[in-house]
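Researcher: Let's run the pair from yesterday's discussion. Sequence first, then tokens, for each.
Model: Starting with the first of the pair.
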Amino acid sequence: MNTIAGTRGHRVDHGRPQAGQAPSQAEALDDAEIRARRMALRSSVIGTALEWYDFFLYGTAAAIVFNVLFFTKLDPMMGTLAAFGSYALGFVVRPLGGFVFGHLGDKIGRKNVLVVTLLMMGLSTTLIGVLPTYGSIGIAAPILLTLLRLVQGFAAGAEFGGAVTMSAEYAPAGKRGYYASWPGVGVALGVVLSAGAFALVRMMPEADFMSYGWRIPFLLSAIGLAVGIYIRLFVQESPTFEKMKARNAVAKAPVKAVWQEQKRSLLIAIGARFSENTAGYIFQVWALSYLTTQLKVPASVGLTAVLIAAGIGALLNPFWGALSDRVGRRPVYILGILVMILGALPFFWMLETRETPMIIGAFILLIVFGLYPMFSVQAAFFAELFPPRMRMSGICTARELSSVITGGMAPVIATGLLAYYGGSYYPIVAYIVFMGAVALVALLLAPETRGIVYEEDE
């Protein structure tokens, strides 16, 4: 039996079959099941990429555009702080979205929830693209912008958790780390697409960009929405959820069950996210603002650096997942935490050079070798911490509660520290190191989940 209290899982040996043994489950799958698995993975990657393109797009625009066009009456530093404040509000409602959609995902199925969240995200992002600015409608502009951000946050509360749950439950024995890492590829692609879209429109003359060019990436979300909905409608429900329905084992109150039966796993998952989520939004979002407003580096340099680093991260994400199938989830996760802790100060040293190759190298160091080892392995790690009947609720609850404390507040905290300490980055380094230390403690207290299989997953 495993070491997580209150579960009905067990460890299994996923070694190669010996001579004379029956074929593995993966080898016995018929063509229809293989096609269903591939469709589920494609759906997770493409749908997650489109949805997180929308979500990260707001963060990029907050660093470059919204502080000027929607918070016009404030000085540059306060305008940036206000823009990131509206950005952070999207994280405030994410736990609510996680509770609601996580509950529905464990009650009525993973697929339907993923369709609804993608629809909400795509529509709200497209509407931002046609939103009048402060100069046209005054105070109503930042209010409407913030309301649309709240819709984005509510939808994001279950998107990644649902995609991870679906991918993990379609994974063959012994390959959950690899399969569950693919939604992370979608997130990385979302970062690449959002940074790439802004990098392209930033090539326009400044007046044209500030007038209408910044809207183009948001309006393109309508095309992505149509593609994503089409793909997700053809995905079959998770086989694990279908088994739970057949056995009448669907939880009546999955969110409540997480709090009552899996509190230790929930706290471990929340703590583990402190480092990963802080890294994601400091190095992929806030650092763009730091480069442009503090170091006076052209915005295109930061966007290019994020584009390259996230692209490499996307390519390596399945590698980290597959590595965790061999050596365990905890070693790979801890590697990412240590890179983040030890690399925080060198990151700023490299940015301070204002040299493009050094800036790109800084982002590659922290995003590729710090963020993505944590992010990739987290998918299977969290899926194995929680049993299937409350899995989506557990993953979404842990992710979104931690998002309020870490990801959503990270740009706001970093901007506030920079302002309070007169532009010094040392307090921000201390903040990053502290968040990494919290995650490191959580991982050291966590069980090794590789090899844990629950009845419904078999």
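Model: Moving on to the second of the pair.
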Amino acid sequence: MTERLKNKVAIITGGVAGIGLGIAECYIREGAKIVVTADRNLKGGAAAVARFGAEQCLFVQQDVATKADWAKVIKATVAKFGKLDILVNNAGVSGDGSPIEDMSLENWNWVMDINLTGNFLGIQAAINAMKETNQSNGSIINVSSVAGLVGLAMAPEYSASKGGTRMLTHAVALSLAQRGIPIRVNTVHPGWIDTNIIPDQARDAIIKTIPVGYLGEPIDIGEICVYLGSEESKYANGAEFTIDGGVRA
């Protein structure tokens, strides 16, 4: 442990599996206290608390697209840890993979609600919590995707939501900076990361498209989130951090 996040309190949405759990692992290692959330993976939430310890980790069930649930998460965070320093908006879904001309409005709205509206509600809740508990200081990290930088042919709704997160981040970072509010907002754009989202039958074909020749690991995203949550990144604001094994090179 290098304690780069010592005395920091972080909320990590979707923080009990995949990329979110990788972020949580890195944050705990660096001395942060964390609140991890998930909507359905209650077993994963219990396992995270058991693994990291109840003194350092709290699990709260949350639908990120529901404003009342954000209020619940903020209230629980402040009650247990006293403040909020970092929000990692990580929770997301990929959609159903259907062509745009066949896609249902229900699928489109579901992806937008979680991936984009969820980030909006999180940003809003975090800014207010940081104003009230942390002298308007903090870091908001929005996990977008390489698909937020270039179109993903098989998932137009996913690309639209992640591109929306990218531009929302730019706009909010500018708004806060211009008003003299020292809350930084940045995006992280993962490429292909080794999680259960990748179908086994597509793994080899995907790896062939990655210049470095292998899939990333969840902690690869965790490490950049440590940097963005720490004071080391105090001059990074409204920026994009692409972690993709060279795909966008």
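Researcher: Give me one sentence on the second I can quote.
Model: The two ends are 32 Å apart (CA to CA).
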